[in-house]
Design goal:
The chain is an all-beta fold and 205 residues long. 0% of the residues lie in helices and 44% in strands. The strands form four sheets. The chain has a five-stranded mixed beta sheet, with no helix packed on it. The radius of gyration is 17 Å and the shape is globular. It starts with a strand and ends in a 17-residue tail after the last strand. The model has no long low-confidence stretch (mean pLDDT 87).
Length: 205
């Protein structure tokens, strides 16, 4: 398997890995992650229809939000997934799909579980979906002109980190972010103008 995304749930000491294997995307779950070492066998493995390009987990509602190759967010019910067994495993399908034409290419997701608010990094924009646990079909978003490539929400401080090209945004009081909000200045993390790279993610204690 090739894993391209990782998320850690500190409250339950659970590690989530998303990636691809053969012709389907895969979600692997490792419990007691803080003590895992050596060759580790995941507690669960699921083949899912989409998610290897980016995902976030709502552990309160047991939902997985995944990004695929289309302009949509795929929502999976973690309680109903069938385990990956054999050479031709069942590919779990999304229970809902959010289509967001306003975001041309989506590259990152992060969830504010307490407020049921989804942050989406897209080409040149940051999108926000309120009531994400029930949103489906053509989904209205609040859109902000940030050259976003990744988004990571810090629930302890109501803070959103947004990765862009050679720079990042740190947005305090993220839950108050709404259309017309004044956005903070960028934090430059790369200084070589000949080497452009995207800030692909963040981690914090």
């Amino acid at each position: 398997m090739f894993f391209s995304n990782v998320a850690f749930d500190k409250a339950t000491d659970t590690l989530y890995l998303a990636g691809s294997a053969q012709y389907q995307d895969v979600l692997a779950i490792i419990g007691n992650a803080s003590t895992a070492s050596g060759s580790v066998t995941p507690n669960h493995r699921y083949a899912v229809a989409s998610g290897s390009r980016g995902f976030t987990i709502d552990t309160q509602r047991k939902l997985l939000y995944g990004l695929g190759s289309t302009v949509a967010v795929f929502v999976f019910d973690l309680t109903g997934l069938q385990e990956m067994v054999g050479a031709n495993p069942t590919i779990n399908q999304a229970v809902r799909v959010m289509t967001i034409p306003a975001l041309n290419v989506m590259t990152g997701l992060s969830i504010d579980q307490a407020r049921d608010r989804l942050y989406i990094a897209g080409t040149g924009q940051l999108g926000v979906v309120d009531g994400s646990s029930t949103a489906a079909g053509n989904t209205l978003i609040q859109s902000f002109n940030i050259p976003a490539h990744s988004a990571t929400f810090d629930p302890s401080n109501d803070r959103l980190y947004v990765g862009a090209a050679n720079s990042a945004y740190i947005i305090n009081n993220a839950s108050a972010l709404h259309s017309g909000s004044t956005l903070p200045a960028t934090v430059v993390v790369g200084t070589n103008p000949q080497v452009n790279y995207f800030v692909g993610g963040f981690a914090f204690p």
